[in-house]
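hey can u run this one w/ magnesium ion bound, need the structure tokens asap thx
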Amino acid sequence: MTLFDPSAIYQRAECLFSQEQISAVIEKIAAEINLQFVDKNPIVISILNGGLILTGQLLTQLNFPLQVDYLHASRYQNKIRGESLHWKTYPQLDLNSRHILLVDDILDEGYTLVAVKEYCLGQQAASVQTLVLADKKHQRKAQENLKADFTGLEIPDRFVFGYGLDYQGYWRNAPGIFALHKEDEKS
Ligand code: IMP
Ligand code: MG
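ok here u go:
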């Protein structure tokens, strides 16, 4: 067994999308949201921790009245594989009759977004739309043809980190989306 070395992990990872590419994508999505939500007085809910960076970079580009909230639900518990969703914090604002925009890092199998969306609808939200920075391309989605309402990037079926996504708790701060080196996927 080799020692976990976050610096080495970063050095040998493959950059799939640079910060510049991602910023351009976020700008494009912000423009769409500005059109679609302008008169909806929505609540933008960041799904922590992964949605942190995307939410921050999106929010200052939105030019209409909105409120911000967050929830903390994680599926992976710092592991690559895992099934159930662990709720740590629910949104604090009353969602009743409100239009909701959920912001998360990635649509992998989609269990997280489906469960969170159901929760919001259960709170009588008027509508719930979803935005993810990345959609992982594979055939294991929780529902057939599951898609977010807004998707930044399509990424290959590899473990990625950066821009909010972590590897064993590290590198959410990496300036881009990086795929783990094949050797590191085994650790
Ligand atoms: P889902 O429920 O399968 O869509 O899982 C979504 C959550 O799993 C994301 O919000 C991430 O926190 C985590 N996740 C899925 N794939 C990756 C990955 O490649 N890198 C880091 N986290 C991931
Ligand atoms: Mg997450």
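The domain at 13-76+84-185 is CATH 3.40.50.2020 (Rossmann fold). anyway lmk if its weird
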